[in-house]
C-alpha cells in the first residue's frame, strides 16, 4: 500500500531515488531512533529561536538578513514581463487569433478588411510583470542538528516560506540525514500551500548521519522539465557529508545544466565543508555561515563576500 501523500517519502539508503527509476523504501525512519529537540536551551523557557521571539531578537534579525539577500537573488531571476491577456498594452504584435480583435489597430483592420491578406493586422501586446518560480528547501536533520541548531534552521525555513509566499513561488521541502525524506502535497513536490509548509518547518526531530547526495538528487529530479524559470535550492547543514558521493559530482553537473541556483547555509564555527563552496560557487548561489555565540545567539554572515 502506498503511504499517505502528506508523509515524507525517503530515498533508498544506497542513494538511488525513485524519480530516476530505481526502487525506493517508502517506510519512515524508525521513530525510536528519533531525538526530539527542546524548543529552548532550558526546559520551560520561551521559544526564543523562532522568528518573532521576544528574547533573542538578534537571531530573528539574522534570519531577516538571509531573507533580504535571497530576495535580491530571487528578484534578479524573475522574468520581469510576459504576455498576459490582462496585462497593460505595451507594444504591437501581429494578431494570432480573432479573440484579440478588441486590441486591433483601427487603421490596419480597415485596410485589411478591404484587402484581405494572410497577414493579420496588428494588435496591442499586453504584458504583465510575472512572479513565480520554485525553491526547494533541503534541511539537515542529522543528530548534530539537535537543539538550538534545529530551532534556528526551523526559523530560517519559515522565513523562506514567507518570502516565497510574497513572490508567489512554489516551495518544496526535503529533510535529510543519511537518507532523504521528500514531502509531497496532493502528489506534488512543489506547492503553494504555505500553511502546510509552515507546519513541516516546525518539526525538530533529529537523528542519523549526513548524506548530501540523496537530498540533492531528489530535489534536482523535481526541477527536471520545468523550463527556464526562477529555480533555487536552499541547503541547510551543520556538517560535512559522511555517506554517499561526498563530492556530489553528478548533482553539481546536473544543477548547472538545469539552471538551478544552490544557496547554502552552514551552521558551525569550524570545519566549513569545502564542498559547499563548490556547490554554491558553481551554481551562482549565495553562501552563508552561522555561528553560535557564548550567549546562545546565532550570528550569520555571507561567506562568499569575505
Description:
The chain has 306 residues and is an alpha/beta fold. The chain has two domains: 9-78 and 131-302, von Willebrand factor, type A domain (Rossmann fold), CATH 3.40.50.410; 82-128, no CATH class. The protein has seven helices and twelve strands. It has helices at residues 57-77, 106-114, 148-167, 194-201, 212-223, 249-258, 274-282, and strands at 9-10, 35-36, 82-94, 122-128, 134-140, 170-176, 180-183, 205-206, 231-237, 261-267, 287-292, 298-302. It has an eight-stranded mixed β-sheet with strand order 1-7-6-5-9-10-11-12, sandwiched between helices. It has a two-stranded antiparallel sheet with strand order 2-8. Strand 5 (134-140), helix 3 and strand 6 (170-176) form a beta-alpha-beta unit.
The strand line-up of the biggest sheet is 1-7-6-5-9-10-11-12
Stated plainly, the CATH topology of the largest domain is called: Rossmann fold
How many strands in all? 12
**How many structural domains are formed by the residues?**
2
Which percent range describes the beta-strand content? Answer: 15-25%
Amino acid at each position: 500500500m502506498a503511504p499517505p501523500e502528506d508523509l515524507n517519502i525517503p530515498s533508498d539508503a544506497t542513494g538511488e531515488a525513485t524519480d530516476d527509476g530505481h526502487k525506493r523504501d517508502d517506510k519512515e525512519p524508525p521513530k525510536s531512533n528519533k531525538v526530539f529537540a527542546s524548543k529552548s536551551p532550558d526546559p520551560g523557557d520561551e521559544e526564543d529561536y523562532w522568528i518573532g521571539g521576544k528574547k533573542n531578537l538578534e537571531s530573528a534579525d539574522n534570519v531577516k538578513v538571509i531573507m533580504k539577500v535571497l530576495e535580491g537573488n530571487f528578484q534578479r531571476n524573475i522574468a520581469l514581463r510576459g504576455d498576459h491577456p490582462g496585462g497593460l498594452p505595451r507594444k504591437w504584435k501581429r494578431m494570432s487569433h480573432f479573440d484579440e480583435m478588441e486590441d486591433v489597430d483601427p487603421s490596419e483592420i480597415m485596410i485589411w478588411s478591404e484587402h484581405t491578406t494572410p497577414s493579420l493586422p496588428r494588435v496591442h501586446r499586453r504584458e504583465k510583470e510575472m512572479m513565480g518560480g520554485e525553491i526547494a528547501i533541503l534541511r539537515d536533520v542529522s543528530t548534530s542538528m539537535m537543539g538550538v541548531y534545529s530551532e534556528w534552521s526551523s526559523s530560517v525555513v519559515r522565513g523562506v516560506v514567507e518570502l516565497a509566499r510574497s513572490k508567489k513561488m512554489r516551495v518544496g521541502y526535503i529533510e535529510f540525514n543519511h537518507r532523504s525524506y521528500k514531502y509531497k502535497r496532493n502528489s506534488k513536490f512543489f506547492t503553494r500551500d504555505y500553511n502546510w509548509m509552515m507546519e513541516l518547518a516546525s518539526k525538530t526531530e533529529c537523528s542519523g548521519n549526513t548524506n548530501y547526495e540523496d537530498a540533492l538528487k531528489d530535489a534536482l529530479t523535481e526541477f527536471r522539465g520545468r523550463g527556464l524559470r526562477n529555480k533555487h535550492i536552499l541547503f541547510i547543514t551543520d556538517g560535512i557529508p559522511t555517506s554517499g558521493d561526498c563530492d556530489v559530482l553528478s548533482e553539481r553537473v546536473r544543477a548547472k545544466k538545469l539552471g538551478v541556483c544552490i544557496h547554502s547555509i552552514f551552521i558551525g564555527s569550524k570545519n566549513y565543508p569545502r564542498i559547499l563552496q563548490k556547490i554554491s560557487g558553481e551554481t551562482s548561489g549565495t553562501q552563508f555561515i552561522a555561528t553560535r555565540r557564548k550567549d546562545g545567539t546565532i550570528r550569520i554572515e555571507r561567506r562568499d563576500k569575505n
